[in-house]
Amino acid sequence: MTATIAIIFAVICTVISIKTFLLLGILLILTVLFKRFNLVVFFSIALLAGGFFWFSDNQNQSVLESGDIEAVATLNDAITIDGDTFRAQVMYRGERLQLSYKIENEKEQQQLKQLKYGDQLQVNGVLEAPEKNRNKDQFNYQAFLYHKKVHWLWKANSLKPTKILNKSPLHTMKNLRKSQLEKIDTTLDTKISPYVASLIYGDRSYIDTTVYNNYQRLGVVHLLAISGLHVNLIVSGFLLLFRRLGFQIEKTAITIMCLLPLYCLMTGGNAPVVRAALMTICLILGNLLPIRITSLQALCCSFMLVFLFSPYCVFEIGFQLSYAVSFAIILSGRKIMRRATSNLLSSLYVSLISTVSGIAVMSYHFYEFSIIGVFLNIIYVPLFTFILLPLSFLLLFCLNLVPILLDIPTAIMKIAVTVSEIFAVMLQSIPFTTWVTGRPSNIFVILLVILIFFFFYQWEKTGKTCRYLFPIALCLFISSVNWVGKVSLIDVGQGDSILIQLPWNKGNYVIDVGGQMIFEKEKWAERKEPFSIGKNIVVPALKSRGISKIDKLIITHSDADHMEGLIDVGSMIRIKELIYADGGETKSIMKKALQALPETPTRKVVAGYSWRKGASMFQVISPKIRGEGGNNDSIVIAATLDNKKWLFTGDIEAEAEHALLDNPLIKADILKVGHHGSKTSTTPAFIDKVKPGIAIISCGLGNRFGHPREETLATLQDAQATIYRTDLQGEILYTFSKGFSFGLE
């Protein structure tokens, strides 16, 4: 236990700063001088672990350079074909590269589906460095790849399979897993095949997005992954089988120890599986050797082994959750379980321990957690563990050995899966099932961890829970409060999305939600889950700030780059009032959105509509009459925020700008430049009247329109306005009383 805490402490110190790491050496010297033996051991281990992590991190470098490259690469991992997109991790000159390629036709797609791990490809493409997150607190793809020792994106223009070398044993195992997943997908009923793939091989990519989201909101999505409980049940099954076959206990134990690493490979090396497998191996060794190993010692040993094999594992969400929950159950579970007077209460205790121990991880990475998940686990854990998991193994057995017997287990599992999904959909109608916490700051994460330890300590000591859950809930609430106001121009690529947060959570307003043009594709080219600006960028940006409802969502006009994401946002975030310009509903994209969100209150507006919250004032100054949802019909808002004048102009062009020249409200300190910096907007006459000190342009990096245009930039520079751009700086964040900061800083 001491070594585990020392490793975590060392990694935190090393990540913060090398100076902080050197502090460990000073602390070690002090503990030696004062003869504190326990602390000497702790800081010695921490120093060794920190040095190991620092050395490993320094070795994680690339010798390649960006630019065009044509070479032969070996398929190494994560082959994915999704519609017209091919992705895989490849090896080239001893380095891992993330390969991507757009498939040209259905015939080529079928050819690529025949590829296996270990095959070689002749690739012609471009090496590009992966980008970090462009919006605050969002998923950092660059860091994600870095922790997998991938430094480059290889965007291929052409792919051509070449000769196949002798595959390694690891490639053979990966190919066996790949072939089994393909067999499950093509042979089993489409209703149950995703569950079998997920519960046996740990691959959740086949699960329908809607189904996955339902389980995630209910807090039971972890059951779709292979957990330690699954591994324990499998091990118990093998023990029973081998004993029935007459194997000696020692031979059975050794056989299981040999099979567990293979099972880890077959499941893709998921963190919970690796943890459970290593723990089981440690416990078996303890029984075979003349030493006794406790569950806690086995858990700590598995932690250290995984860390030595892959130091970056500590950054993986699955690793953090698995070990946090396991430590809590082992350390506190036994004492707490003694108070359980029934199996139902015992299950509830385990569920509560798992939920509370994972709160810090869930809040930090997912910005929310399920409140009712504590109770639903009592229903769903037995369903998945004792019904769906055994049926999945039975189906796999029949699929490979006796296909004629598939019908009966298929019918039973379809009934179980259907009931599970219907129940999940019904529960979605219950309000307040999920708490959107936002991402706590580092200080609040540390405070959360301390309060969680305090909760378990008091639960063990007093048997009380509610009174000690309150400090945790209060900490989460305080961390989500927006104490000062903020204005965020979210980087949604070529589009607009602006979030205005008033101080003390008095109001959350969103102007536009971004989006992209949707083009029809042939059936073979359709992606299973197309990228969505609303779902993949705007919703996470809102939830990361602790926003579960929007007081007013204003759609400036009915163009896709301003509102295509509305349906996704409206289905995931409660909109108290949807505002759009009168006449905007005549365009098909707005009609579709209104039909998809029938319960959302709406308001059509023209110039003259306004609202006030405290010292903040918002006034719609255009359009003056009903329009058709085009650029010049954009809602223009003059706002007073933090004692500064703001002007949000949508996509208005020269004609609408000219109509506003006589309006004194257009004078502003900060201007959101119209139409992404197009040459048809931001006329010199308009800028001369607005006189902005700061001009903000929302546009996509390398967009095909060439925005912002040189003419527009010249006009703003002539007016001596400071220019901020989302394509160059990522999200542009203004904090009241503090000023601007940027997502790519």
TrEMBL record:
SUPFAM superfamilies: Metallo-hydrolase/oxidoreductase
Gene Ontology annotations of biological process type: establishment of competence for transformation
One Pfam family cited in the UniProt record for this chain: Lactamase_B
Keyword terms: Cell membrane, Membrane, Transmembrane, Transmembrane helix
Cellular location(s): Cell membrane
NCBIfam families per record: ComEC_N-term (TIGR00360), ComEC_Rec2 (TIGR00361)
Protein name: ComEC/Rec2 family protein
Species whose genome carries this gene: Listeria riparia FSL S10-1204
